[in-house]
Amino acid sequence: MSEGQAEDLEATVNETIRLLMTRTGKRQVDVAEVIGITRASLSQRLLGKSNWKLNDLPKVANYFGLTVAELLSGYAAIAQADRLPPAKGAEGQARL
């Protein structure tokens, strides 16, 4: 994998996690707690200033009810596969 491809993958993961957090109403502190890092450390990762650890991806994916492969595939692919977690406040409501 070239450096450019690695950067693209990092950007995809960052964007996907941010969008999943927005959809589900989860805060940085919630996701950071699952991984076992500080909110500030998570913020640095989401901003692309620090790299994700491979050990953290299964924890994040599981937190959102996804596989690591789905997390790496990006938000649009997750949505297309109808695998998005329920939206905040959507528990018990039919999906449109």
Write up this protein.
With 96 residues, the protein is mainly alpha-helical. 60% of the residues lie in helices and 0% in strands. The chain has 6 helices and no strands. It has helices at residues 3-24, 28-35, 39-46, 56-63, 68-73, 75-80. Helix 2 (28-35) crosses helix 3 (39-46). It is globular and about 40 Å long. The protein starts with a helix and ends in a 16-residue tail after the last helix.
- Provide the structure class: mainly alpha
SSE topology string:
HHHHHH
What oligomeric state do these chains adopt?
A: single chain
Q: What share of residues are in beta strands?
A: under 5%
* Helix-residue proportion: 55-70%
Number of helices: 6
Gyration radius over CA: 13 Å
What coarse outline follows from CA principal-axis ratios? globular
Low-confidence stretches: none
Main sheet overview: none
Number of strands: 0
Q: What is the terminal separation in angstroms? A: 38 Å
What is the overall pLDDT average?
92
